[in-house]
Structure formats: structure tokens, C-alpha cells
Amino acid sequence: MILIASSRPEVEKILIKVFEKYAPEIPITTPNTPQALQARTAACWFPDLAQLKQLPQLQLLHSIAAGVEHLDLAQLHAPYRVCRVLDQVHQQGMLDYLLWGVLYFQRAFNHYFDQAQQRIWQQHRQRSRQELCIGVMGLGHMGAFVAQALADLGYQVRGWSNSTKQLLNVQSFVGRNQQAKFLADCDILINLLPLTDATYALFDQQLFQQLKKGAAFIHCGRGQHLVEQDLLTALDTGQLSGAILDVFEHEPLAPTHSYWQHPKIVVTPHIASHAPMSAVLKQIIDNDFRLQSGQDLRHEVDLTRGY
Ligand SMILES: NC(=O)c1ccc[n+]([C@@H]2O[C@H](COP(=O)([O-])OP(=O)(O)OC[C@H]3O[C@@H](n4cnc5c(N)ncnc54)[C@H](OP(=O)(O)O)[C@@H]3O)[C@@H](O)[C@H]2O)c1
Fold first, then answer.
1. Ligand 1 centre and the CA of 141: distance in Å?
2. This model's pTM is above 0.90
3. Rounded CA gap, 117 and 281, in Å?
4. Residue numbers in the chain where pLDDT is lower than 50
């Protein structure tokens, strides 16, 4: 029995539909039903944790995505365990999105789209891959894959993480002590960090000041990583030349938000990459089986570390 647990009714509906489509043999239920009392595993997206805590058999809170910030890990401890979804198609999707983002800045499309509106014929210098330094913050499931692929294509790539990484032709920088050194040479900065206490509001004025003047920013982590006003100041002063934003503090982004009309910002509606729903269900069902049979769970989150 898998519990579908989301405080967002539209997500609950979609999850029920995909379980019925891809796994009709698996019994599912929702909170506030007698069957929910039997559920060991919950497929979660912003669940009502207080409600889940009433369910005596529940042990595994399974995110339907790579991120787990919607589970409020600070509130969770034994017997609860948390898993997330990791998938190759998901990695490839993120790489495709970021290849577009890197080329957008590398080949000055940010200027050309703007110029086209004003019918301005002006060529910008063609920059090669080899002369661009790309910094990837977060070298986990997504970041390491992206950093390696960009390095293989010939970009200068450096990555920032909590522990040292050994990736071919990717320079590894670790922790706060090496943050300024990591940032100093980046032409394009990519955020692929998880949202934790340590990374909340990390992208602020101080961080942007440590970048090379005119660097570009691609934001694919979580909205709460970014201090909105500091981004706007960095763009307005020219410290940043442009930003592509895929994640926001409040989603969907309000129609009145200033990002939409900002000439140096491209907004995408949290679409950088999604894991196929069939893969999401497969991992949840597999982990539920592992839990039942006492096997190790796959892609389990370290609750003390927060990611
Ligand atoms: N926009 C989208 O469509 C989309 C899609 C998928 C994922 N995402 C987001 O992408 C982000 C990355 O996901 P992931 O699955 O790659 O995460 P992950 O596998 O958990 O990797 C996290 C990486 O960040 C590093 N890190 C964590 N805290 C740090 C800190 N305080 N200082 C320095 N490095 C730190 C970790 O270092 P260590 O390796 O040393 O532990 C690790 O390399 C998440 O925010 C996720 O929600 C967005």
C-alpha cells in the first residue's frame, strides 16, 4: 500500500493517475482514509507532515523528485527514513538545459534577442569553449554529471562541493574557505546545490561581488538559495551580465513579479529537468519492497546532513 501525500490537490490527482497508469497492481491510498493506517511508504510532494505523523505504520517518506526540501527534514527523525529519485534521463535533461544556458551567454544570444527587438545589426565577439570558465556549485548527482560533460566538451570547468572531487579536467574547490577562489574566475556560474540551512540565501550580494565583473548566473537549485534583491542589484550595476532563473521562492512566479520584464533575466517555469514519472514510480515501489524485505534502500537521504 503506497500513500499519496501532497498538500497540493493538483499534484495528488496527477500522482493517483500515474500510479493507475504505470502500476495498476499497486494499491494506493490518500491520507484520511482507513487504508492509510496500513501504509508504510508515502510518495510525497509538500506533504502535510502533521497528518503523516498520525499514521502508525509509516516509515518511508519518498520524495517524487531529486530535491527533499519539501519534506522539512529538521522535523524528521527515526523511525522515518527519506529517499529521493535519481535518474539518468533526469541528469541528461539537466545537461541539455544547461548546454542551452551556457551557449546563450557564450554566443551572446542574450544581446541578439534584445537587439532584434530594436532591429540593431551588431556582431559580438565569438567566444570559444576553451576561453570560458564555468563554475558549478554542487557536484552531486546533477552537478558532477554536468561538470564532467562540460569539461569533456572543452570548457574550463571548476566545481564547488563539501568534499573534494576527482573528475577529469574539473578543478575541485571545497567549502567556504575556497569559495572566493572558486568564484573569482567564473564567466558563468551554475547553481546545482541542495537547499539546506548552509545553502539558504547563499546567493547574495557578497557572493555576486566575488565573481568576475560581467559574469552570468544560471539558477537551477531552489528559489530559497537566492536573495532576490541582491540579484537585481548585481544585474543593475553590471556585476552580473545576465541570469537564467528556473526556480523561485514562490512558484508559480507571480505575473506581477519584476523578473518577467527584466531585460537581463530569462525566466523558465521550473522545467530544467524532470525525471520520467514511470521511473519515479519504479523507484518508489522498489524502495517500498526493499523496506518490507529489510534490504538497503536506494538513494536514501542523510537526515543529519540534510541532502
Ligand atoms: N530545476 C530543476 O528542474 C531541478 C531538477 C533536478 C534537481 N534540481 C535541484 O538541483 C540541486 C542538486 O541536486 P542533486 O540531486 O545533484 O543534489 P545532490 O546529489 O544531493 O548533490 C549536492 C551537492 O552539493 C554539495 N553541497 C551540499 N551542501 C553544500 C555546502 N554547504 N557547501 C558546498 N557544497 C555543498 C554536495 O557536496 P558533497 O558531494 O561533498 O556532499 C554535493 O556535491 C537540488 O537543489 C535539486 O533540487 C533542480
1. 7
2. yes
3. 45
4. none
